[in-house]
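Figure 2 data, in text form.
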Amino acid sequence: VGALVGNSLNGSVIISNSYSIGNVSGFINVGGLVGSINQNNIVSNSYSKANASGDDNVGGLIGNNNRGAVINCYSIGNVAGISNFGGLVGRITIGTGYQDVDNYWNIETSGQSTSLMGSGRTTAEMTYPYVANTYVDWDFQTVWGEDPMYSINNGYPYHYWEYDTPLELLSPNGGEVWQASTVKTIYWRPNWGIQQIDAYLSLDNGFSWESITQVPVPAYLGYYSFTLPVVNSDQCLVKIEPVINPDGHFAISEISFTITTSIPPSLNILTPQNAGLKLQSGRVTTIDWSAYLV
């Protein structure tokens, strides 16, 4: 029993770029994504958020793996069983066709600290920012997307195809008040197929634009940080657009936001302060000052 597939037959069966949610229950071979896979089957680039419960051979992703390959997958659903159960996979048979490559399960949400396949990770390790030893060698350029704002998949990686929508700017999107001369980050939802983007800032409600990216930014990152100019404007907008064929694919802040200096730039001499002070030639004199945005 599986949320996507119950039992796949022997042979060249490939289950890829898939995911599942919900609850799955049964007696034997119960998996959050697939109940049972067999020799030379491949499950790759897939994940399950489904809860799996049963008596025997129960796993967060796959209940029973009979000499199949599991590559670049993860599961985070709760797992409950009586015998042969585990965070990612409940039961395995090793032989020709068997592979376990860069797979992970959440030891906290699954309630399971062990699994015959995969590597156990905490929620903090599996959600953004992803630690170095998790999602090793995964393709975050064309297959998987990062979720830095926890707005798409609660911080977990997701498939680009799940959100194959027009390029979307997430922040700033209107009403923000940003301090001039500070470093701020813009966020967008990556669009599968867009490789690089340019970003622009307008201080006059879109009448004119200035580039804020020195070089094109990989779109899959979903964010870019830059230093705000020293200005006062409540008519600020950010625009992002693909480097290739930008017409019709750009995204702009829905409502203007504000950049303010709050405290104007200043330079104050602290010492010496005595009016008419005479300095002697050849002697070292210390001058102290304070500066803001200068």
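Caption note: The radius of gyration is 27 Å.
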